[in-house]
């Protein structure tokens, strides 16, 4: 509504002309200026400017909904009350039914932990007919790291849903619903995002996957004080895309080792007792998610995949609905499988830590599948 | 005071100055018709100018107020008013304690913290808690929730509302034993959700527009007692190239919010993100939007991890001493830390 034309807002005719003559065409133009600046620019009195700003504001501001009506609307209109089930029981329960529509879900973890496996599995689930618990829609898979494997996709499908994939032609149809894009650079990625915006609405696209976000900016981004996030525009764009087409968006993120001079504390915490400091020193070997804190604010749900003493865990690190739970999992021929559905509640900030102890074992173990 | 500083249009100012009226004193004894002829403007315009002149000097009005300057308030009166100031509970007793009873109405409170610390949770909790009726020690108001990030979860609001309803039922069972307990109309989760007005803001222009419009909206919905903005940061962090403009626009929003808080006695809660700030050769966490914004809020609370506990720290407040209190986020919402330890792992 930011681009609404001032001309059509029912202002007095003379005032309308003044706005048009000063090239203040949209609400955005007008509201970026202060009342005083407008007076200078338009050469009209305070009362009139105030009146105009109030009117423009009223028209440009979004309409409200009570949360109750929002809830009812979701219940009625949306299949599965707006969630894409991951078919990992414990995780689905924790997230109130799966990955919610209209939000960004992020997977963070060291390489080889199973992020892509997770993505492959859920892209199948979104493509699956609704009688099997899928969304019966198309999937757009943006594969930045060239890790998408159709063969693995079919393998997961045959093993997890033998009843569907053994039917004649079903494997072809399911795989046909998944569109893979391979942008080579950030610019290409930006272009393909813009194209997607149109096609999401035209075709029945029910899921957007970006694997991985971090690969797009690796190298250019890291450390140093920076005014602007290289993905600033993309964050807004993907968020609004998710919101308006009401589809879940899943992204993966890489890890980085933490720089020596990066202290993740506030200045007022400095003078506190030194025990805390020792604590922090110890975990210096830990990894942190790439793309920085700005990005972490933007995602709605963050799932951390890590390995501790030879066991892989998937942790709900940030979620508005779920308590901080960790589920052990393994990667099998069916894709990611939870070892138990109860989950362990994690204490405190541990939920955000990304461990990779005994990771070598796991890669080896993974090769056997 | 000079004519230049009057709230007049540029052409009127130009005419005044070219006619030799540079100070307000020179205008104070003029008649409108005289001025109209001299400046070659219509008489109504002249009248407007003279009106703003007299407003500008603040001529003593006929009211019998004892203050020296019009519209001012003595510190004593303010104290009286402060004592009647209501607070919205956060549902965490420790946090309420350091805040002097909760988030105070009539003030702008900024709450910031790292991702996943519980900012949105606290926001939803406040939107529900503001509705606790008077006879349960609440404010009995309604809430406006401005969502800029799309992080508001209806399911979560439902959980928190249900828990709040249960707590109130428990309370009335304990304190009003006997049949009369049933007489008190219980609030259902549905009622709670009905009273939260949810605005989804998708660009910074909409955010400015909404801040301007809220004034009118609250006039129409008098019982709104809290405005939650989750978060103030999001759009201003990505869409702005012109930093000077950003500072100016944010300043405007801050002023508007303060005005809202004072005028209608609502609590304004602004959630903010954190950023890495480079100082003394290392990175520190600091709330986003820079130094000029940090003046915008009356109170500033930072949520942070202290070891394995979540803590809230009062970073800035004119009346509260700087203190820190632990809290926890449970399935019922924001609660005291101790109750968390007793809690059995659910699911």
UniProtKB/TrEMBL annotation, chain A:
Any one of the GO CC terms: Rad51B-Rad51C-Rad51D-XRCC2 complex
Source organism, top-level taxon: Eukaryota
InterPro entries xrefs:
AAA+_ATPase, DNA_recomb/repair_RecA-like, HHH_XRCC3_RAD51B, P-loop_NTPase, Rad51_C, RAD51B, RecA_ATP-bd
Localization per record? Nucleus
According to its UniProt entry, one GO biological process term is: double-strand break repair via homologous recombination
Q: Which family does it belong to?
A: Belongs to the RecA family. RAD51 subfamily.
* The name this protein goes by in its record: RecA family profile 1 domain-containing protein
UniProtKB/TrEMBL annotation, chain B:
**MF-aspect GO terms:** ATP binding; ATP-dependent DNA damage sensor activity; crossover junction DNA endonuclease activity; four-way junction DNA binding
Which GO biological-process labels does this protein carry? meiotic DNA recombinase assembly; reciprocal meiotic recombination
Reported function:
Involved in the homologous recombination repair (HRR) pathway of double-stranded DNA breaks arising during DNA replication or induced by DNA-damaging agents.
Mind listing the UniProt keywords for this protein, alphabetically?
ATP-binding, DNA damage, DNA recombination, DNA repair, DNA-binding, Nucleotide-binding, Nucleus
- Record-linked InterPro entries: DNA_recomb/repair_RecA-like, HR_Repair_Mediator, P-loop_NTPase, Rad51_C, RecA_ATP-bd
What does the similarity note say? Answer: Belongs to the RecA family. RAD51 subfamily.
Species of the source: Mikania micrantha
Q: Which GO terms describe its cellular component?
A: Rad51B-Rad51C-Rad51D-XRCC2 complex; Rad51C-XRCC3 complex; replication fork
Q: Where in the cell is it found?
A: Nucleus
* Name of this chain's protein: DNA repair protein RAD51 homolog 3
Q: Where is the RecA family profile domain?
A: 84-274
PROSITE patterns documented for this protein: RECA_2 (PS50162)
Name where it mostly resides: nucleus
